[in-house]
Amino acid sequence: MKIKDGYILKKVVGASIVVPINEEANVIHTLNETGELLWSLLEEGAEREEMAARMTEEYDVSEERALKDIDLFIAKLRERGVIE
Prior knowledge:
Structural class: alpha+beta
Number of strands: 3
Largest sheet: 3 strands, antiparallel
Shape: globular
Radius of gyration: 13 Å
Oligomer: single chain
Strand order of the largest sheet: 1-2-3
């Protein structure tokens, strides 16, 4: 999976937001700390299992919970047309 061209992550007044940089997209998405981590991993080309491993390292969360959260995050991004 890959983030579509035309979206970037920006920090604005301490908040992480996904900003569309093309005219087709006009919605801004706010990310929490975990969302920011997952976004950066997607930018690096990480796969689902790599993302889960990183989440279990960073947070006190089981691999099963991490995978569920990742699936939800990816589903939301797909629904909003942000990833391919």
